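Much of what follows relies on a compact textual record of a protein's fold. The record below shows the convention in full:
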Amino acid sequence: MRNPMRMMAATTLISEALVLFFAGLVAMQLSSLSTGQALGITWSLAVVCFLAAGMLRGRAGYVFGSVLQLSLFAIAFWVPAMIFVGVLFGALWIASLVIGSRIEREMAERAASSEVERPAGSL
């Protein structure tokens, strides 16, 4: 099985990217930003979310993803409704890291216990 924490975190980041694409359309109408600024900010953050999902092979990807969650709150200066989205995805990000690491730990314990139970000469 693949790395559960990585899969959950990548799913969160990709979902966040899709929401950011649509948030740009909302930001055009609800903020004082110009169309180019609203789409530029939100769509560039969406692309960065996709890139961060690809960086999750190492620890730096998780740190970068955590910092990226804070950027969602920055958009709330222009579109106050993004506070709700930021809280939601922040909670999903934390849940991905906590639950994913717990699943990894349980899988490692299960693998270790099956190795102990198996006799040395058996397949």
